[in-house]
Amino acid sequence: MSVIAVLGAGKIGEALLSGLLHGGHSPDDLLFTERYPARAAELTERYGVHGVGVADAARRADVLVVAVKPQDIEPVLDELAPLLGEESLVVSLCAGLPTALYERRLADGVPVVRVMPNTPMLVGEAMSAVSAGAHATAEHIAVVKDLLSHVGQVVEVPESQQDAVTALSGSGPAYFFYLVEAMIDAGILLGLPRALAGQLIIQSAVGAAKMLAESDEHPVLLREAVTSPAGTTINAIRELEKHGVRAALLAAIEAAKDRSTELGRAHEPRV
Fold it and tell me: Domain Pyrroline-5-carboxylate reductase dimerisation, which positions (predicted)?
């Protein structure tokens, strides 16, 4: 079995470790890196997985999952560059960073797979999109899909679509949380206790998501099924349209895509 090292044990990195363990991987086949000793000790106690340095991880692991913040990538690449060869597989979970960045900084031929996950990985319900770099084969993609299948669903997309994926599903949970927050506030405005408003909206969101996942019907048809003539729902929909909620969502997601593109360009070589 391959040894897998997660470089950066933040929330996403920890969620992946947890998912791999629940999926049957032995703690002996997993490693992680973490800059804070107290956090590293906490994770080792919780999962039985050893924390190591980046260089040690590069020497011992077959698969290196890079889960650091995009702005922290440069020192990590500096450490990895002299240690990795074609036999290693690098999996990038860093938003906005193209495979070309890794390929430019690492030895020639190192396979890189770019992934955009999202935070529902924490509850085993991630939506992850994977893209092959120039040296990654179908076998490499299969390895990455298998890893991520332990924490949710996985699709393969061309890398040219990754910034759009980042904006839509990578940031997507935040949009839902934002809407739920606003709806809870609306319940309070209408006189409901906060706890009750939260219970009503959160279960409605869970139920609606399950209907979307399990139904073959288009979201428009599911919405229309709730929207009776001259009823309460159509009055609410009219107000949403009047205030440009649909247009605001389109603009927001486009802005997120543009930011993802900027993150990648920030690491392009200067001429």
Answer: 159-263
- Residues 101 and 49 occupy one common structural domain: yes
Q: Does residue 265 fall inside a structural domain?
A: no
* pTM for the model: 0.91
107: helix, coil or strand?
coil
Residue 68 placed within a domain? yes
Pairing type for strands 63-66 and 4-7 reads: parallel
> Same structural domain for residues 10 and 114?
yes
61 near 6, Cβ under 8 Å? no
Residue indicated by tokens 């990754």:
162
Of 97, 131, 160, the residue at which a domain comes to its end is 160
Low-confidence ranges of the chain (pLDDT < 50): none
**What's the pLDDT tens digit per position in 33-88?**
999 999 999 999 999 999 999 999 999 999 999 999 999 999 999 999 999 999 99
Q: Which residues are documented as binding site?
A: 67-70
Hey, is 192 helix, strand or coil? coil
Distance between CA atoms of 201 and 204, rounded to whole angstroms?
A: 5
Same domain, residue pair 154 and 195:
no
Amino acid code (one letter) for 165 = V
